[in-house]
Amino acid sequence: MNLFQLNQSQPLVPYIRESDYAVRSAYYLPSRKLLDYLLIYIRKGQLQVVADGVDYRFSEGEFCLLQPGTTHDLRSPGDNETPFVHMDIFFHPEREKSFPTKPGQLDLSSYQHLMQPRLNDLEGMNIPVKLQLKSPHLYADLLLKMIDSWLSPDPLRMLEAQVLGSQLIHAIILDHSSATRGDAPGQHRLDWVDSYLSLHLAESISIETMAKRAHLSPSRFREVFRRRFGFPPHQYLISLRLQYAQELLKTTSNTMAEIAEYCGFADVFHFSKTFKQQMGCTPGTFRDSIGKPL
């Protein structure tokens, strides 16, 4: 199963369960297993993590990600600051019943129904315990802002924390996955197309821009688009522009020039010519016929 397929049943909806700056002196946290994800930023000092029997050493500026089901212990030899977040990545209807496990809690058989899916169990995913980040300062900024917002009692700040958490997970997946999207014909979701085109009708929209948004090459995008909508992208865009033009002709007193501009036509001549080719009459004739039998 890949991320795309899992997202159909368990959408990517990060949920922060616990988060703090964690400024401490030397400490040792005995072995436990996780139900959720634990992300740790070594802001100051050092951290030793033994995860599933492998010893990892972290220095300032590095990030550690422990995935659900990982048996681990944590140790810091001196003063340290390790901001962290316990969070779900995938939606679970009973997420509020889950919890950060306690030291020594290794048998989670009674809580398997709360266990989050592991990213590394998905096709194309290989996210190490010691994250390999392209922009570590971006991660640090997102995490610290997220913690600050989550610790606030203001509901809007807490909502902001969830948004920042989503950005953080998005960045981690992008930096560490080789195949987050399936390439089977039915797996390219273009549900965004109608709303995107409707919002940008007055603008010049290129195949390259839309292909980039769909994470496809322009030639592949044309193929997938035609299979989904039955028309090439340009022809489909023209049909949407003409539908909107008809609506404006019916319901407003806007001039032809204004309608042409609002619908993304270069000028009145282009608008009238295209309208007549597709509708069989000029925009003016169409407007005059409103309310009259054709």
Ends apart, CA distance between termini? 56 Å
Number of domains: 2
Number of DSSP-assigned strands: 10
- SSE arrangement, N to C: HEEEEEEEEEEHHHHHHHHH
Topology-level CATH name of the largest domain: Jelly Rolls
> Roughly how much helix do the residues carry, as a percent range?
25-40%
CATH class assignment of the largest domain:
Mainly Beta
Rg measurement, Å: 27 Å
Percent strand? 15-25%
Shape annotation: elongated
Number of helices: 10
CATH architecture type of the largest domain: Sandwich
Average predicted local confidence, pLDDT: 90
Q: Find the structural class using helix and strand composition.
A: alpha+beta
Low-confidence stretches: 179-187
Give the strand order of the largest sheet, numbering strands 1, 2, ... along the chain: 1-10-4-7
